[in-house]
Amino acid sequence: MRNDTAALGQVYSDTAVLFPPGREIRGRAAIQRYFDWSAPYRQLAHAMTPAALQIYDGVAVDVGMWSSTGQRGENPASTATERYLVVWVRETDGQWRILYDMWHRPTPTH
How far is CA 77 from CA 29, 43, 69, in A? Predict the structure, then answer.
């Protein structure tokens, strides 16, 4: 929400892989750059609602729906919702971090 890419990056493992639609982005620094939205875009809200969470020792698989609301300049805010899949790992420091992050492009509405 604050566009704090450094804080967002700490949620990801150093070796994380991000799979936005049609792309593959490797490593925490590259992921931070991907999420560095420049003006005039503002992220107004973002939520991830798990539908299933399976934990196996130091690995967790999280599947659910994401919803994101953003605004470009003075245009009306728009909201998109779709599915996601996130694989978390418990790292040696005991923190859970994202290793794989993947989501669908929102389905066009007619």
Answer: 28, 9, 7
Each residue of 51-82: pLDDT tens digit? Answer: 999 999 999 999 999 998 988 888 999 998 99
Question: Which pLDDT belongs to residue 104?
Answer: 85
Is residue 76 within a helix (H) or strand (E), and if so which, with residue range? none
The CA distances from residue 99 to 32, 39, 78, 87, 105, in Å, are 14, 28, 29, 6, 20
Spatial contact of 49 and 73, defined as CB atoms under 8 Å apart: no
Exposure pattern of 57-77 as b/e (b: 16+ CB <10 Å)?
Answer: eeebebeeebebebeeeeeee
DSSP-assigned letter for residue 95 = -
Assess whether pLDDT exceeds 60 at residue 5. yes
Domain regions of the chain by residue span: 13-83
